[in-house]
């Protein structure tokens, strides 16, 4: 994808905002100096996403002063399935695969004017490419970066690792006996968990992970999920911060979790399972505890478990962070009908005290 060389959008005499169609057009060192270690939007990660040809188009807005990158934001364009016969082209800040605000601001330039200008540039570019809806998402508070009228989009489950090690975590957990039993159930069934870090998958392994992921993709049919290919898993496995948990029996992979180490946090991003071969086992729950074990062994302090299966993650001991969004339609008159559809199918319902009633719906757009 070629970089767009449009005219700069000045904020003041020394500042301009530029649009790019690929992360390759942006200097990796400048990008990484701007990125907080806990943010998912690493330069190498975004480049790998682009090269894996997932079903979305990438856009980048960057802010420059005197040749230095002082602000950046990522957006993607993709199709949201509203029902079996209707799709909606959507532009969102971030990617359909990750949670967290995909915007970076340098030190003293962490102001609402710069943030608003980056988002406005991405919204304008998205609409120009046919997006009917633009979602500036994953703000950590209902009033943030000068954005008004933010909706609660979803709640992200995060587990803070407070004990000294995994054994202490299990010993102090109210469900400690259940945790040991669920882990042993995999061992009794002949399974072992292989841990790989920054280790490339073979072609057959990437194809197997794709098959396992497709089983959950077709089972849940989430409106916001986009389809990926075996190349996606191959590309992700080669990244230096990638961590894979592979559940094996008789040399065959029957489940996996794809995670990424981001600073002192582990992000659990993608998973898959052979529903037939593991039908009698609590694979998701047991693999979740193996993720906790691996995080402790790596010296991490927090796990981002994402936005699905809230009840299970609450039992694990997770806290829930609300992430908020501003949603606009193009043309504006579509806002009413689209908001109704989003509230029905996508936005997280809340109780009077602001707590989520969402149980298992996954929203990534």
Automatic annotation (TrEMBL):
* Family annotation (Pfam families): Acetyltransf_6
The record, for InterPro entries, names: Acyl_CoA_acyltransferase, BioF2-like_GNAT_dom
Look up the domain of life of the source: Bacteria
Instruction: Tell me the ranges covered by the BioF2-like acetyltransferase domain, including all copies.
Output: 177-313
Q: Please give the Gene3D superfamilies that the UniProt record associates with this protein.
A: 3.40.630.30
Query: Protein name, please?
Result: BioF2-like acetyltransferase domain-containing protein
Biological classification of the source: Bacteria, Pseudomonadati, Pseudomonadota, Betaproteobacteria, Burkholderiales
